[in-house]
Amino acid sequence: METGNLLTIIGSNFRLNVKRTLFPAILLLFVIPLIYGTSSLDSMKSADCLERMVALIGLPMFVPLLMPEQGGGMDAIVTLRPFPYRIIAALRITLSLVCTAALILAFEGYMRIGGCTFPASVFALRTLAVTMTLGFAGLLASAVSGNTAVGFLVSFCWYCVLQVESIGAVFKSVSNGISIYQVLLLSGSGAAILFFSVKSVRKS
Amino acid sequence: MMSLFEMECKKTARSILYWVLVLALLSVVFFQYDPAVESELRRTGDPASVFYNAPGGNYGAERSSVPDEAMEQAMMTGATKLLMYNYRSNSYQYYPFGYVKEKTMSEKEQAAILRYLTELTGLTEQGLAGAADGTGNTNIEDIPISGDGAFILEPGKGSTNENGQFVIEPEDWQYVPNDGTSPETPEVPGGLSDRQAVEDEAASSETLPRANDSLEIQVSFERFKEIMEEVDRLIGHNSYFSWTMLTLYYFGNDMEEAPVTERQHREFYEGDRVTGAFARYYCDSISSVVLFLPAFGIVDLMLRDKRCKMQGLTYPRTISSAKMICIRYAAAVCMAMLPVLVLPVKSLLVLMRYCTVNGVQADGLAFIKYTLAWILPTVLLMMALSLLVTVLLENHTAILFTGLIWLVGRPSIDKLAGGNYDLFDLIIRHNTLKGYGRMMENIQMLAWNRIAISLAAFALVGLSVLVYGRKRKGGLIFGNRKPAHNHRLKLSSER
Question: Residue A187: exposed, middle, or buried by beta-carbon count in 10 A (0-12, 13-18, 19+)?
Fold first, then answer.
């Protein structure tokens, strides 16, 4: 593939999803300091803020990625295209990943300016893992059901389940580190998303 | 109209979103509510159980609505110590939205706090900062409640409750002084303590004074209350120094495990008639779920037309916008309330059977009454909000919008025990089987709250009808999008 074509694909996919992913995520990050308090937090409380609040950006950043093709009548158009749709899905996930990492780093910078003390780079990676877990859960549900609202609902329910101490401890990556189960879950769900992404278009 | 209503109900029932809502409600009932009911029924002989019938009428001592001197002293001492600790570390916690926020005061505000502390304790700035006794401990990780030590939890302490959750009782904490002496008998760390522990603490502080532990409060209780009000205003809404939080922690509350009093016993059997208390607790359990999940149903229902590209067919129909929107809204609300009404039936039957066996009169309609009065207005409002946003923007923004409302709209700690209602509370909490009297004392505000929420919901539905009507006529187009039917027209029903 020529570089120009690749850049065109990247640009058009970014423009397609920026309003429904980046804008709500940025809005959410602006709301977090109002309700949670992000100044002068120690390492433990910073971890709690990152995995309970910042991780929520996983919902707008990942869940609606397949929505443009879930409208009625798109299946024929997508199927007839020579360029594999799975690669488009992987590209969108990668773009969202990069933007999510940037948002997390920006918010951590804001927390550090506010006097919080925590290992920024380590927590950034762990927060990204938690965010991806939340987002991938919803994205997988969206891909399987062909309905983005189902994805949001599943992500939200997953978030509520993680608040239960006994269950959520394994996935509290920022406080407890990234476990092997989380890595397996992310890999598995990522592969499943790509597999079902084509089926979600056909289902719509 | 009925066939359209039935059709919308069937569409809702076929949606996977609806069944996820049902599953979420089922999970809450199965894991939280039902175990609580069964646990309460299993311990009817326990003096702390609401079912307890004391032989000879010997119930727990009634907590006086007017606190006695010991309780006031404990509150003043405990609150002042906490304020001193917060002042040293310049870190003050408060709960504006149910999540803890920490505030760092400016120099001017710290100076004001210092003035109040000096007035409360009679100590100088040096004494308050801990420099005189060489402590000045500002480590946030330790929580010095009294003296210069900290409460620690040793491995092996704590226990698991019936729901499988790890819980730490006050007596599991061990106080370790900072001066190297051996650990002492654990005190209750000023949290949700029972009255006896508070009295013991007040008594022990007189008979066993520790170094750097004696704190003489120099002001009257009335002046203390005024100072705390000022401090709370400086910190923010619902700090530990607000009157509501102070009474919650130091004067006891219904959520703690204490022997039932005669008044609570009477309220449970005569006021609540058994099932009322459990109906309230059920509504409390599901309140968080109904604050957000019903929004998904109405969003999906309204976006189906757009997803299936049916707007070109539905817009020109002769049915009025009001009928269309109201029927869809009514169908979504009815389907959302259906599992809410059905799920507690099992516990209702269990409770009714218990009452029949024990010759107690129960209220068979309690669950219906509480669900319709407490839960339905919240469902109406959240669905109306989602309806309006979806009709206006024709995308999933309503989900993120109601998600934000769920984040900020959950009540704070002072409302958990119930009885503390405000006009615009989105959900009503009552995290205890007691407290019927407290609810009845504030029933007017509760009623106004539910009426206000319901009226707001209907107003939003009216607005949705207007917006939908304009859209059908080709108005309210955002960006370069064309209207669904590609031309402006006047509907036959509106000529």
Answer: exposed
